[in-house]
TrEMBL record:
Domain of life (superkingdom): Bacteria
Stretches that traverse the bilayer: none
Gene name tied to this protein: ybhF_8
Keywords tagged on the record: ATP-binding, Nucleotide-binding, Transport
Molecular function via GO: ATP binding; ATP hydrolysis activity
Methyltransferase is among the record's keywords: no
Name assigned to this protein: Putative ABC transporter ATP-binding protein YbhF
Length: 322
């Protein structure tokens, strides 16, 4: 089997006494698009900075393209395209100058790819960067990162603040880039619909820990949702349903999300005497949100996470715990 593009081994980072990334064991396979998800502060950027060799782990290791990220050589770094939040570009330069500037000394530079990406974002190469929209600046940044032909692309929230048209251009560019099955993308994002369109694998971090690590299909197939009515029902009764990830009360109906549903969970649901209990369609975004929404609040809303999911090969324990 191919060595993974990235291997995290018990990767841990504290800031002061606060653990921000905790015991991450995680592989990013070659040739796939892996989406790294998690609420603000979950530890995604910190993880990415460690696997890029920009921040040292407190414990554990990140191995990127076969090399310990803490000792990454310029040669290895040149095989990685890294796009961070914010898209840093010189405002006074024209887009075509940006290309000239970056291309210098880079023999692998693919001008056609650069021009294609720029065109895809509807950018005039003669425009000055300062006159571009936020989405267009993202397009230039992406073109600059892709043109050297990196075998690994690491993107930290690349679609932050982009409008739907720019997001589509970004998604299409990434799908095309990764389409040869040899190049690898690791992408942190909050845009769940985009993840559904472009990712092969999904990893979810909660509170610095990896809670889900599986394929998109596997994730989707393990989630079942129900709608039901019930006059009298409380959190304790719901908590007794095995596999329940989330229960939300919307007007007079409950929306229930279960992971790895089995006969036991179905029987437990039946015992609650719901009226009109019916299975409903749920999107990938709904399924992920169920994992991420873990707060409890007043009686109109109740969430509990108590599930353990495993990857298809059963190797990596993943899922959601309290
Ligand atoms: N240099 C630092 N010093 C102290 N705390 C930090 C530092 N960098 C990050 N943190 C803290 O670590 C936690 C995780 O931050 P991180 O940026 O990794 O999260 P994230 O999942 O990328 O969030 P977002 O989705 O908002 O980008 C946050 O609580 C953040 O405040």
């Amino acid at each position: 089997m191919n060595q993974p593009a990235i291997e995290l081994k018990r990767l841990t980072r504290y800031f002061g006494s606060k653990p921000v990334v905790r015991d991450l064991d995680f592989d990013v396979p070659v040739g796939k698009v892996t989406a790294l998800l998690g609420l603000n502060g979950a530890g995604k950027t910190t993880t990415i900075r460690m696997l890029m060799g920009l921040l040292s782990p407190t414990r554990g290791r990140a191995i990127t393209l076969g090399q310990d990220a803490a000792e990454m050589t310029p040669q290895t770094r040149s095989r990685i395209g890294y796009l961070v939040e914010g898209h840093y570009l010189y405002g006074s330069m024209r887009v075509s100058d940006c290309q000239q500037f970056q291309r210098a000394g880079n023999e692998q530079w693919d001008s056609r790819l650069f021009d294609d990406v720029v065109r895809h974002f509807a950018i005039d190469p003669k425009s000055r960067v300062s006159n571009l929209s936020r989405g267009q600046r993202a397009g230039v940044a992406l073109a600059l990162v892709l043109a050297p032909g990196p075998e690994l692309l690491v993107l930290d929230d690349p679609a932050l603040g982009l409008d739907p048209v720019s997001r589509r251009a970004l998604n299409e560019t990434l799908v095309q880039y990764a389409g040869d099955g040899e190049r690898t993308v690791l992408l942190s994002t909050h845009l769940l619909d985009d993840v559904e369109r472009i990712a092969d694998r999904v990893a979810v971090m909660i509170g610095g820990r990896l809670k889900v690590d599986t394929t998109m299909e596997d994730f989707g197939s393990r989630i079942t949702t129900y709608a039901a009515r019930s006059e009298r029902l409380d959190a304790d009764q719901l908590a007794a349903v095995p596999g329940l990830v989330e229960a939300r009360r919307l007007a007079d109906r409950w929306q229930l999300t279960l992971a790895d549903e089995d006969d036991e969970s179905r029987a437990a649901l039946k015992r609650l005497n719901f009226v009109d209990l019916e299975q409903t369609e749920s999107s990938f975004a709904d399924a992920v949100l169920s994992y991420l929404t873990r707060e409890r609040s007043d009686g109109s809303f109740f969430t509990q996470s108590l599930v353990s999911m495993k990857t298809q090969d059963g190797n990596v324990a993943s899922g959601v715990t309290r």
